[in-house]
Amino acid sequence: MSPFLCALRHTPAVVLAVVLALASPATASAQGQTPTPLAAPTAADLASGAKVFTMYCARCHGFDGSGGSGPPLARPRLRRAADTAAILDIIVNGIPGTPMPAAWMLSETEMAQLAAHVRSLGQRPEEALPGSPERGRAVYAASGCAACHVVGGEGSAVGPDLTAIGMLRGAAFLRESLLDPAAARPERGVAYEPYAYPAYVVVQAQPQRGPEVVGVLVNEDSFTIQLRDRAGRWQSLRKADLQRLHYDTRTSLMPTYRGKVEEGPLNDLVAYLMTLRGRP
Ligand code: HEC
Ligand code: HEC
């Protein structure tokens, strides 16, 4: 037996675990292990964390953490992360099945500094919005949104359920969704895949006989395709019966409200949507 192994035989298990961990070249992220949060992050730690945030997180969560296609992080309580350790866990592993990616490219130190920065965002005041949520609720009811959206179980599910939309997106993204729906497109994650895909893809299907069917893609396999059309009707088609099948990720079934809703009511509508924080 080598002197190294011989020494190990007489080493307590805890020390052994540390020795093995130090000897292992694998990084924390490769193993999905969560590094320890910084006990007392310094100003320099927070500044490094802020830099990493700008580089890797701001495109979805906003530079100031006010949200975007991802949820606002400048809030005292996060839906999925009660403390810094939980934030670190999300940074290491991402949130499987959603567009939230794992930050495998960061070192343990960078991850810990980043988590401290995200935690510090929660101490900032929440973004103040210009509109009135009460008036926005009325704008929502008057604009026919419920023909395609569900809030708290009410409405039709052509588009996404909006019951918790204020927990999932930032105000600027929601505004963009109303003015340019195709540009502010929600994405969907796929479990065990690192990439997100466009959601609510518009499909145009031309049967051999009869009118074209247009709807959002719900499901498909090799032989059939299922769509939900503008009227909320579920359509299941056999691919063999189709003359043409076209997938369009650049248009939206949702009409633009640019020019249809004035600036004031638009602010109200966004303010209302940001208050929707129930369970989807
Ligand atoms: C491609 C867009 C995208 C990027 C880049 C991204 N996120 Fe996310 N993140 C999301 C989405 C979407 C969710 C919400 C997932 C869900 O709950 O459905 C999320 C959720 C989170 C949450 C939980 C929020 C809550 O309300 O509980 C934290 C914390 C978080 N992200 C931190 C980060 C950090 C830190 C980075 C940078 C390393 C980052 N994210 C990069 C899209 C992104
Ligand atoms: C004809 C159906 C239809 C109508 C009417 C409609 N929407 Fe949509 N909406 C959709 C679809 C489909 C999507 C999915 C994304 C896309 O295609 O742009 C969507 C997306 C959204 C999103 C983004 C959701 C996310 O997860 O990011 C918001 C917010 C939204 N709609 C709000 C509204 C509001 C408010 C109204 C009324 C003023 C409205 N919609 C009217 C079909 C509709």
Describe the structure.
By secondary structure, the protein is α+β, with helices and mostly antiparallel strands. The protein folds into 3 domains: 42-127, Cytochrome Bc1 Complex, Chain D, domain 2; 133-178 and 257-275, Cytochrome Bc1 Complex, Chain D, domain 2; 201-248, SH3 type barrels. It has 11 helices and 9 strands. It has a 5-stranded antiparallel sheet with strand order 8-7-6-5-9, with no helix packed on it. β6 and β7 form a beta hairpin. α8 packs across α11 and α10 crosses α11. The model is unreliable at 1-31 (pLDDT under 50). The protein binds heme C (2 copies). One heme C (HEC) binds at residues 56-57, 59-61, 69-71, 73, 78-81, 87, 90-91, 95, 98-101, 103, 114, 118.
Quick structural gist:
With 280 residues, the protein is α+β, with helices and mostly antiparallel strands. The chain contains eleven helices and nine strands. The radius of gyration is 24 Å and the shape is globular.
Any descriptors?
Cytochrome Bc1 Complex, Chain D, domain 2; SH3 type barrels; two-stranded antiparallel sheet; 9 strands; binds heme C
**Unreliable residue runs:** 1-31
Strand percentage: 15-25%
Annotated CATH architecture of the largest domain? Orthogonal Bundle
Per the CATH scheme, the topology name of the largest domain is Cytochrome Bc1 Complex, Chain D, domain 2
